[in-house]
Design goal:
alpha/beta
């Protein structure tokens, strides 16, 4: 693979850097910028107390690597003993184990809300307590779907997604980049990217190929003018990489 297929990675750090480095090793010309930055809760003591009061729950959904880091940092891993933990994918599961969590379930591939909802742990949830640990605005499909299935759902914002500064040369590089492919991991990242780029830079993104984690997010992208928006079928690195040209199989997918 050569560098004729530039890729814009929009995943937040440190996961974004890891994905960008992997793509560079595969020969891609990579632009790496997340329009969002992550931070802990504005009132950590209050959120920690609230979290302690909601535990144990039958199921705790940690919606991202950052939610895992923040949740364990707020109350410690021992506070989650007795709760079934659900995370987006295998990478998140390894991180959760390294931080001391156990009894963890995750989709084999995908990493989006749709694949998480297919897990046995989230299909039969009538009258069960389910705690969703997320950022404001994220993973609303989980909350809505689980409530419809009869779960007693609580949601707690254990971290914040804030606007990230725009690198001074990024828009010029985007405008000059042909055949751009943009990797989007969430609807929030898509909206933030659209809102922060100039009209000309966004038009370059919209004119290229955009890989979304689900059909729902792909539809959002199409509504914003991205006519080549595609559903990658998941937000995890391997799923996204497998959708890039010439990389449908091989050791890079293991």
């Amino acid at each position: 693979m050569n560098a004729r297929h530039p890729v814009l990675v929009t995943r937040t750090p440190p996961e974004g850097e890891r994905l960008a480095a992997r793509l560079r090793q595969l020969g891609f010309d990579v632009l790496n910028w997340s329009p969002l930055r992550l931070a802990g809760p504005a009132e950590p003591s209050r959120i920690a107390g609230r979290l302690q009061g909601l535990l144990p729950a039958d199921c705790v959904i940690m919606t991202s690597p950052e939610s895992i880091r923040q949740a364990v940092g707020l109350v410690g891993a021992a506070a989650f003993a007795g709760s079934r933990i659900v995370v987006p994918g295998s990478g998140s599961a390894r991180q959760a184990e390294q931080l001391g969590l156990s009894d963890i379930a995750f989709p084999v591939c995908g990493g989006n809300s749709e694949t998480m909802l297919e897990l046995p742990e989230l299909r039969q949830v009538a009258d069960k307590s389910v705690l969703i640990l997320a950022a404001a605005g994220g993973r609303r499909l989980l909350e809505k779907s689980l409530a419809a299935r009869g779960a007693r759902v609580e949601r707690l914002h254990v971290y914040q997604r804030l606007k990230a500064p725009l690198p001074p040369d990024l828009e010029d590089r985007l405008v000059q980049t042909p055949q751009l492919t943009t990797l989007i991991s969430s609807g929030g990242a898509l909206k933030a990217l659209h809102d922060q780029l100039s009209t000309q830079a966004w038009q370059r993104v919209a004119a290229g190929r955009l890989l979304a984690p689900s059909e729902r997010v792909a539809d959002m992208a199409r509504a914003l003018g991205c006519l080549q928006a595609e559903n990658a079928g998941g937000a995890d690195d391997l799923t996204m990489i497998a959708c890039l040209p010439g990389l449908t199989s091989g050791p890079h997918l293991r």
